[in-house]
């Protein structure tokens, strides 16, 4: 299969392969521990084998803090057109949060409403349904990278973040360095857009390493790292079903960025997305999901 730049599918591929090695019990146990359904899951379902959507979240969760989303990617998959989109949402995007009845930065939706409030806010912002979410604890993200033996990245910049130096060029890095590489924003000329690009690169490299045969010999450490740092409303059976039904759709991936203007509103800096830009993006995603306007 062609390289898949979706962390969600990294899980499915890992689980799908290791099940064939007669370790279903361990995989099922890890999947059960990661499973955290949304309250409305029983009410909102997608058509079998129809277009589906995912919200991938990297969350900063530290002791004494409710946490904020450090990265946010919406994935839509259409098995009929065999196309997938990945839409990165800038963390400072100004959105209206219904439960607070006010405008906020989208990365604060998790602070105010947890995963339920975040999913709902993203749905309202893009005017599309979100069927599944995968939440990754960013602090534990390094454990996942270390469990697969590190990843190779190709840095376009030379920078230092929080005492960790990353030279320009191709290099094999451990989890600690990979986390800094994915997080840096201020020294990137493209700001949050450059950071989003590096995050997608890291996800891609995790797929590269995580689906190699050498990683499968270390599957227990990988499962432990995933289990400790990921929550999702996907069951193991659903992951396996999706892997079988949608794998052809990830051969054609379009990566989208949300344009706008960084400016102050009421004394705070936001990424403000014009209504015309938001409407055009929403129409594109709704078409991708076969939703009639």
Task: Describe the protein's topology.
Layout: H1 7-19, H2 24-34, E1 52-60, E2 68-78, E3 83-88, E4 94-97, E5 102-105, H3 109-126, E6 132-137, H4 141-147, E7 151-155, E8 159-161, E9 164-166, E10 169-173, H5 175-183, H6 192-210, H7 213-216, H8 219-229, E11 230-232, H9 236-246, E12 253-257, E13 261-265, E14 268-272, H10 275-288
Parallel strand pairs: 1-6, 3-12
Antiparallel strand pairs: 1-2, 2-3, 4-5, 6-11, 7-10, 8-9, 13-14
Helix pairs in contact: 1-6, 1-9, 2-8, 4-5, 4-8, 5-6
Pfam family, one: LytR_cpsA_psr
Keywords: Membrane, Signal-anchor, Transmembrane, Transmembrane helix
Family: Belongs to the LytR/CpsA/Psr (LCP) family.
Give a description of the structure.
- Keywords: Membrane, Signal-anchor, Transmembrane, Transmembrane helix.
- Belongs to the LytR/CpsA/Psr (LCP) family.
- It comes from Bacillus changyiensis.
- The protein has 293 residues and is of the alpha+beta class.
- The chain has one domain (7-146, 217-284): Nucleotidyltransferase, domain 5, CATH 3.30.420.590.
- The chain has ten helices and 14 strands.
- It has helices at residues 7-19, 24-34, 109-126, 141-147, 175-183, 192-210, 213-216, 219-229, 236-246, 275-288; strands at residues 52-60, 68-78, 83-88, 94-97, 102-105, 132-137, 151-155, 159-161, 164-166, 169-173, 230-232, 253-257, 261-265, 268-272.
- The strands form five sheets. A six-stranded mixed β-sheet has the order 11-6-1-2-3-12. Strands 4-5 form a two-stranded antiparallel ribbon. A two-stranded antiparallel ribbon has the order 7-10.
- A hairpin with a 2-residue loop joins β13 and β14 (268-272).
- α2 (24-34) runs parallel beside α8, α4 (141-147) packs across α5 (175-183) and α5 packs antiparallel against α6 (192-210).
- It is globular, with a radius of gyration of 18 Å.
- 41% of the residues are buried.
């Amino acid at each position: 299969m062609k390289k898949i730049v979706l962390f969600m599918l990294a899980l499915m591929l890992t689980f799908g392969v290791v099940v064939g090695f007669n370790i279903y019990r361990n995989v099922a146990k890890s999947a059960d521990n990661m499973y955290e359904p949304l309250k409305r899951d029983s009410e909102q379902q997608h058509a079998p084998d129809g277009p589906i959507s995912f919200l991938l979240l990297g969350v900063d969760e530290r002791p004494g803090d409710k946490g904020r989303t450090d990265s946010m990617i919406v994935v839509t998959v259409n098995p009929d057109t065999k196309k997938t989109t990945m839409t990165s949402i800038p963390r400072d995007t100004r959105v209206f949060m219904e439960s607070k009845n006010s405008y906020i930065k989208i990365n604060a939706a998790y602070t105010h409403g947890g995963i339920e409030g975040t999913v709902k806010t993203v749905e309202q912002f893009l005017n599309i349904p979100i069927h599944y979410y995968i939440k990754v604890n960013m602090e534990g993200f390094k454990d996942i990278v270390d469990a697969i033996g590190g990843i190779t990245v190709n840095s376009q910049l030379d920078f230092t973040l929080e005492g960790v130096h990353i030279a320009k060029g191709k290099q094999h890095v451990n989890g600690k360095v990979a986390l800094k590489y994915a997080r840096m924003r201020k020294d990137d000329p493209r700001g949050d857009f450059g950071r989003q690009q590096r995050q997608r690169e890291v996800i891609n490299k995790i797929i590269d390493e995580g689906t190699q045969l050498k990683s499968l010999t270390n599957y227990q450490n990988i499962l432990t790292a995933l289990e400790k740092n990921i929550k999702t409303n996907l069951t193991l059976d659903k992951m396996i079903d999706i892997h079988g039904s949608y794998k052809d759709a990830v051969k054609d991936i379009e990566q989208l960025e949300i344009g706008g203007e960084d400016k102050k509103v009421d004394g705070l800096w936001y990424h403000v997305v014009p209504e015309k830009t938001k409407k055009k993006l929403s129409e594109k995603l709704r078409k991708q999901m076969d939703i009639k306007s």
